[in-house]
């Protein structure tokens, strides 16, 4: 597809960039539903803090005790298909030496003849679980923004490894885009969010033109939403808070929403004790879209 090309690497990392595990789950599903082989993994001694991301011990199929170390790995599809093919870069966000980390992977991506990059992230936001998940689609690459009709982020502040990799890719001539899902903050820290994962994969297919599997995500999303409905039904304060978020979201999404209507909804929010006030759904106060 024009813009990102036909050999696109999809990137997601566990950690700060992964509210509700939405982004990492998306890449995990792509890997599980496809056929991939590892191309390159970094040396964990160089990039991970084991007190922060501890190695895990488990028992393998032969009964031996095995220590598994934090990793970040690039995977290549093992079958050739017509149209866009997806490489996968997944693992744990590194604790140090981010520039060297990015350089290692960009060098391998160039050897793999990668033509584009899409970073997947998810952030906690003031959004209701009952509405479609908002996806921010952006790029710092002007040509890519024009071709794909996506935005340029105006965020300024601390960044995650996704931004570092995106900047390194652009500098190396690999156009990079990012997709960020807004996960309801009142559930993001407590449960996986299949509805956000599904929204990310839907948008990824739109951008890349690749055939993207969804497995059972539609069913899992409905069950996720129903479980939150059930929990909120026993909590009047939570029920009212969700209704408040729904009203705000519906005001922003309304085609006739004017500046005055949005201002009035904002004032109503403040009168209800909304503190600092709502952000536009999908625009978190501490926006981590990097």
Spell out the key features of this protein:
single chain; 290 residues; Rossmann fold; globular; PSMG2_sf; Rv2714-like
Q: Largest beta sheet, briefly?
A: 7 strands, mixed
Number of helices: 10
Structural class: alpha/beta
Overall pLDDT score:
88
> Which geometry do the CA atoms define?
globular
Number of domains: 1
Widest beta sheet: strand line-up:
2-5-6-1-7-9-8
Q: What distance lies between the first and last C-alpha atoms, to the nearest angstrom?
A: 24 Å
Percent range of helical residues = 25-40%
- Rg on CA atoms, Å: 20 Å
Helix and strand element order: EHEHEEEEHEEHHEHHHHH
CATH topology: Rossmann fold
Number of strands: 9
Second-tier CATH architecture:
3-Layer(aba) Sandwich
Beta-strand portion reads: 15-25%
Give the CATH level 1 class.
Alpha Beta
- Identify low-pLDDT runs: 272-283
The CATH homologous superfamily is termed: PAC-like subunit
Pfam families: PAC2
Region (Disordered): 268-290
Biased composition (Basic and acidic residues): 281-290
Protein name: PAC2 family protein
């Amino acid at each position: 597809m024009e813009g990102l090309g036909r050999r696109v690497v999809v990137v997601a990392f566990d950690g700060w960039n992964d509210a509700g595990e939405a982004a990492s789950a998306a890449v995990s599903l792509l890997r599980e539903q496809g056929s991939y082989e590892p191309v390159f993994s970094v040396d964990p001694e160089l990039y991970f803090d084991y007190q922060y991301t501890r190695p895990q011990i488990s028992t393998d199929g032969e009964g031996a005790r095995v220590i598994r170390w934090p990793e970040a790995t690039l995977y290549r599809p093992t079958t050739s298909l017509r149209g866009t093919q997806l490489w996968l870069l997944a693992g744990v966000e590194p604790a140090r030496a981010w520039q060297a980390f990015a350089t290692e992977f960009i060098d391998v991506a160039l050897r793999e003849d990668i033509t584009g990059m899409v970073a997947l992230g998810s952030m906690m936001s003031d959004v209701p679980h009952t509405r479609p998940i908002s996806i921010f689609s952006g790029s710092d690459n002007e040509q890519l923004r024009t071709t794909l009709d996506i935005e340029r982020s105006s965020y300024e502040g601390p960044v995650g490894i996704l931004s570092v990799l995106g900047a390194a890719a652009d500098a190396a001539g690999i156009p990079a885009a990012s997709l960020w899902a807004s996960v309801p903050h009142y559930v993001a820290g407590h449960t996986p969010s299949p509805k956000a994962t599904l929204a990310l994969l839907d948008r990824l297919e739109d951008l890349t033109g690749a055939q993207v599997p969804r497995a059972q995500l539609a069913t899992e999303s409905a069950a996720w939403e129903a479980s939150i409905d059930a929990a909120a039904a026993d909590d009047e304060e939570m029920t009212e808070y969700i209704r408040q978020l729904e009203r705000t979201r519906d005001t922003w999404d309304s085609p006739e929403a004017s500046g005055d209507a949005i201002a009035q909804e904002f004032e109503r929010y403040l009168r209800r004790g909304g503190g600092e006030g709502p952000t536009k759904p999908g625009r978190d106060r501490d926006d981590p879209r990097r």
